[in-house]
C-alpha cells in the first residue's frame, strides 16, 4: 500500500491546516472511499431515488475529500443509465462520417433553412447545450476543434427520448448523433437527429471554456488544455508535423533511422549530469541516456554511413524556459562529412520544417512578431567575437603543446571576476572562454547564427581544427537568443579520444558532475575504425520553441511537474 497522502492544501489553503477537519488519507484509502460513494449513489438510484435524492451535496457521509456535487450528479446519471439498460460507455456506434468531413462537404453550400436527405452518423464532445422546449441545440466538437451543431427535436425522436436527452447529457460528454444534414433557419450547418446516444459519459466537468486556462491546469492536465485551447491542440499537431518533416529530409539524404539504448552502463555523449537507476536482474547501477552519440558512432564503425535517431534524453539539471529534465533530441552522423556539411544539413532541416509546418520560412510567433528562417545564415568565430567584445585578443590554449601557450586561466579568471561572470568549481581555459563569450553574446544572437570553433577542453568528442591549435571544429546554432543545435567534425582517433576521456574523468574526480567517464567499449569500437564524419544534435522541443515562440513546457505534450501531494 502506498503511503502517499491527499494534501488538503492543494486547493490553496495552508498545507498544515487541520482545523478545517479535513482528514489525512492514503491514496488507497481515498480511492476506496470514492468507490464506496459511487456504490452508495448507485444503490439509491437502484432503489428508485431521483438524481437529486441520490447525491449528498454537503458530503455529510463521506467528507470533504469525496466527490464534489457536480461529479456526484454525473455518477448518478451513469447509475441511472445502467439501471435503464443504457451503456454509458458503448463498445461501438455507427459513426459514418467525421465532423471535419461533414464540414468540408457542406460548408457554404446550403441556404438558411435548406434541408438534405443525406444521413450521417457523427460523434464529438459536447461543448454547448441550449434547451428550447421541444427542440434542443447541442454543439459537438471534433478532436481538432472543428465544431458542428446538432438539433434534437421532440417531433423527430419522441417525448420520452427528448426527456432522457435533457436528463442524461452533460457538457463534456461524447455524444453520437445520427440524422440528416441541414442548415438551420439562421444558416448554421447542423445534423437534425433521428437517433442519439452517449458515446462516453464524462464524470468530471469541463472548466469554463470562455476563460483562459491557468498555467497549473495547462501543465498538470494537458488533456484539458487540448479540449479548451486551440493553441495547445495546434502545438501537438505542429510538433508531429515537425518530426515527420525531419524524417522526410533525412530520408531524402539517404539517412537510416536507428534506436539506441536508454539504459547505459557508462553515461556519455554530452556534458550533463545524469539520472541513475538500478537493474535488479543484473544487480547493476545504470544511467538514463543523456545523448545517443556514442552508440550512433558505433553504427558508423559498423558501416551505416548515414545514421540518425529521434530520441528521448534525460538530464538531471535545472528547469527553465528552454530546459527540461526529459526532452526529445535528434542526432545524426554522416560519414565523410564535416561540421561544414552537417551545418548545411541542419539549415535545410530547419528551413524545410518551417515550410512543412507553416508554409513559409517566415513564421509568426505567439507574441505576434515574425521571424525569418530564410536565406543564408550568419557565421561568427567564438574566439574572434570574444576578442572583439573584450577589446583584446584571446588566444586558444593547445593542451597538446607542452610549453605554456594561449591566454592563461589566471587572466581569463580575472576578466570573469571583473565582469561578474559566474565561475565553475572546476575550471580550465575552455570553460572560462565559453562563460565569457556567453556573457557577451548568448542571449543577444537573434537572427540564425552559427558560432564556430570552440575550445578543445569543452568538446571532448570533437576533432581538432585543421589549422587552429587548441580549437575544435564545432559550431553551435543560435536562434532568437538561445542555442538550437550543435554540430561537429567528429573525433575518430582512438588515442586522442582516450586522452580526452582521461581529462574528463579527472575533472569528474575533481567534482565536475557533468564530466563524462571513460567508455572503454566505445574506445574499442573506435579502434576498429570509424570513418571521418560530421555530426549534429538538435532539440525537438527547442525547434518548436524557435518556430512558435512558446516555452519548453508548452512544446512538450506532457511536461513533468512536481506532484501536489
UniProtKB/TrEMBL annotation:
NCBIfam families per record: lysS_bact, PRK00484.1
Protein name as catalogued: Lysine--tRNA ligase
Cofactor(s) listed in the protein's UniProt record: Mg(2+)
Keyword Transmembrane helix set for record: no
Keyword Nucleotide-binding annotated: yes
GO molecular function annotations of the record: ATP binding; lysine-tRNA ligase activity; magnesium ion binding; tRNA binding
Matches recorded under PANTHER family: LYSINE--TRNA LIGASE, CHLOROPLASTIC_MITOCHONDRIAL (PTHR42918:SF15), LYSYL-TRNA SYNTHETASE (PTHR42918)
Protein family according to the UniProt entry: Belongs to the class-II aminoacyl-tRNA synthetase family.
Coiled coil: none
GO biological process: lysyl-tRNA aminoacylation
Recorded catalytic activity of this chain's protein: tRNA(Lys) + L-lysine + ATP = L-lysyl-tRNA(Lys) + AMP + diphosphate
CDD domains found in the cross-reference section: LysRS_N
PROSITE patterns assigned: AA_TRNA_LIGASE_II
Region (Disordered) residue spans: 1-22
EC number: 6.1.1.6
GO cellular component labels: cytosol
Record's compositionally biased regions (Polar residues): 1-13
Localization, UniProt: Cytoplasm
UniProt cofactor note: Binds 3 Mg(2+) ions per subunit.
Gene3D superfamilies: Bira Bifunctional Protein, Domain 2, Nucleic acid-binding proteins
SUBUNIT field: Homodimer.
Record keywords, A-Z: Aminoacyl-tRNA synthetase, ATP-binding, Cytoplasm, Ligase, Magnesium, Metal-binding, Nucleotide-binding, Protein biosynthesis
Chain sites annotated for binding Mg(2+) 1: 476, 483
Amino-acid positions noted as binding Mg(2+) 2 in the UniProt annotation, renumbered to this chain: 483
Domain Aminoacyl-transfer RNA synthetases class-II family profile stretches: 239-563
Amino acid at each position: 500500500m502506498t503511503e502517499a497522502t491527499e494534501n488538503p492544501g492543494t486547493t490553496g489553503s495552508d498545507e498544515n491546516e487541520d482545523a478545517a477537519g479535513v482528514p489525512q488519507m492514503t491514496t488507497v484509502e481515498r480511492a476506496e472511499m470514492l468507490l464506496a460513494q459511487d456504490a452508495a449513489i448507485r444503490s439509491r438510484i437502484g432503489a428508485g431515488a431521483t438524481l437529486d435524492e441520490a447525491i449528498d451535496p454537503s458530503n455529510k457521509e463521506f467528507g470533504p475529500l469525496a466527490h464534489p456535487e457536480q461529479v456526484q450528479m454525473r455518477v448518478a446519471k451513469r447509475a441511472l443509465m445502467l439501471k435503464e439498460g443504457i451503456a454509458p460507455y458503448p463498445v461501438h456506434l455507427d459513426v459514418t462520417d467525421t465532423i471535419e468531413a461533414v464540414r468540408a462537404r457542406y460548408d457554404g453550400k446550403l441556404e438558411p433553412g435548406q434541408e438534405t436527405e443525406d444521413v450521417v452518423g457523427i460523434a464529438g464532445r459536447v461543448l454547448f447545450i441550449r434547451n428550447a422546449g421541444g427542440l434542443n441545440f447541442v454543439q459537438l466538437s471534433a478532436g481538432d476543434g472543428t465544431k458542428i451543431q446538432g438539433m434534437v427535436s421532440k417531433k423527430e425522436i419522441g417525448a420520452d427520448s427528448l426527456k432522457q436527452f435533457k436528463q442524461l447529457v452533460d457538457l463534456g460528454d461524447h455524444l453520437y448523433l445520427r440524422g440528416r444534414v441541414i442548415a438551420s433557419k439562421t444558416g448554421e450547418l447542423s445534423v437534425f437527429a433521428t437517433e442519439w446516444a452517449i458515446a462516453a459519459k464524462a464524470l468530471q466537468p469541463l472548466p469554463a471554456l470562455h476563460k483562459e486556462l491557468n498555467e497549473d491546469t495547462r501543465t498538470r492536465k494537458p488533456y484539458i488544455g487540448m479540449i479548451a485551447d486551440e493553441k495547445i491542440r495546434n502545438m501537438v499537431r505542429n510538433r508531429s508535423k515537425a518530426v515527420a518533416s525531419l524524417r522526410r529530409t533525412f530520408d531524402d539524404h539517404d539517412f537510416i533511422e536507428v534506436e539506441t539504448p536508454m539504459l547505459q552502463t557508462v553515461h556519455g555523449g554530452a556534458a550533463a549530469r545524469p539520472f541513475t537507476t538500478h537493474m535488479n536482474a543484473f544487480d547493476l547501477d545504470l544511467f538514463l541516456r543523456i545523448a545517443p552519440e556514442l552508440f550512433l558512432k558505433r553504427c558508423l564503425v559498423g558501416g551505416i554511413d548515414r545514421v540518425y535517431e529521434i530520441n528521448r534524453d534525460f538530464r538531471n539539471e535545472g528547469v527553465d524556459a528552454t530546459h527540461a529534465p526529459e526532452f526529445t533530441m535528434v542526432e545524426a552522423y554522416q560519414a565523410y562529412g564535416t561540421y561544414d556539411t552537417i551545418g548545411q544539413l541542419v539549415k535545410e532541416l530547419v528551413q524545410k520544417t518551417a515550410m512543412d509546418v507553416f508554409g513559409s520560412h517566415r513564421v509568426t510567433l505567439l507574441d505576434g512578431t515574425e521571424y525569418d528562417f530564410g536565406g543564408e545564415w550568419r557565421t561568427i568565430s567564438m574566439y574572434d567575437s570574444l576578442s572583439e567584445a573584450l577589446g583584446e585578443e584571446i588566444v586558444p590554449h593547445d593542451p597538446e603543446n607542452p610549453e605554456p601557450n594561449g591566454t592563461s586561466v589566471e587572466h581569463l579568471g580575472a576578466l570573469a571576476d571583473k565582469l561578474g561572470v559566474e565561475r565553475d568549481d572546476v575550471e580550465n581555459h575552455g570553460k572560462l572562454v565559453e562563460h565569457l563569450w556567453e556573457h557577451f553574446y548568448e542571449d543577444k544572437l537573434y537572427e540564425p547564427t552559427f558560432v564556430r570553433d570552440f575550445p578543445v577542453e569543452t568538446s571532448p568528442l570533437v576533432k581538432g581544427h585543421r589549422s587552429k591549435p587548441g580549437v575544435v571544429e564545432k559550431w553551435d546554432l543560435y536562434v532568437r537568443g538561445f542555442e538550437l543545435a550543435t554540430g561537429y567534425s567528429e573525433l575518430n582517433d582512438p588515442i586522442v579520444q582516450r586522452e580526452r576521456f582521461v581529462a574528463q574523468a579527472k575533472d569528474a574526480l575533481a567534482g565536475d558532475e557533468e564530466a563524462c567517464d571513460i567508455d572503454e567499449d566505445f574506445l574499442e569500437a573506435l579502434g576498429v575504425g570509424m570513418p571521418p564524419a560530421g555530426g549534429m544534435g538538435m532539440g525537438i522541443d527547442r525547434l518548436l520553441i524557435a518556430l512558435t515562440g512558446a516555452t519548453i513546457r508548452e512544446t512538450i505534450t506532457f511536461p513533468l511537474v512536481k506532484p501536489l501531494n
